[in-house]
Design brief:
The protein has 122 residues and is mainly alpha-helical. It has a single domain (2-83, 91-114), classed as Arc Repressor Mutant, subunit A. 53% of the residues lie in helices and 0% in strands. The protein is built from six helices and no strands. It has helices at residues 2-11, 16-25, 30-37, 41-55, 62-79, 111-114.
Length: 122
């Protein structure tokens, strides 16, 4: 299974395997994948098309996306020296989506602070 999916993704060059993993990790959201990879959403759409051409699997289809996700997971396990029961830390193939936005949320602005008082006239 991995030879039909992961090997062609890696041989195609670029970051197709990384994009596939990020897309599946992001719940098949193009915008979330683009933010995680720091690319434009159209770049993600282009790469998804290339993934479909190279592998024959369309990641927009839930069943085909599941097959690719399992393939990527098996390939990651095969590459690691970790025992089969523990997947270990994520590799560079699986970006950490939660680490993309580490900024603290903005402080709320009170209405009284946002609106300057009108000047008084005599």
């Amino acid at each position: 299974m991995t030879s039909r999916i992961v090997t062609p993704l890696r041989e195609a060059g670029g970051s197709l395997a990384t994009t596939a993993a990020a897309y599946l990790t992001a719940g098949r959201s193009v915008e979330a994948t683009a933010r995680a990879l720091f690319v434009h959403p159209n770049t993600v759409r282009y790469r998804l098309g290339r993934i479909a051409q190279v592998t024959g699997y369309d990641l927009a289809d839930p069943r085909e996306a599941y097959v690719v996700q399992v393939s990527l997971s098996v390939a990651r396990l095969d590459e690691s020296d970790v025992p089969r029961g523990d997947a270990g830390p994520a590799t560079d193939m699986t970006p950490q989506l939660e680490e993309t936005h580490k900024e603290p949320p903005p402080k709320p602005v009170r209405f009284a602070d946002a609106v300057a008082p009108a000047p008084r006239t005599k």
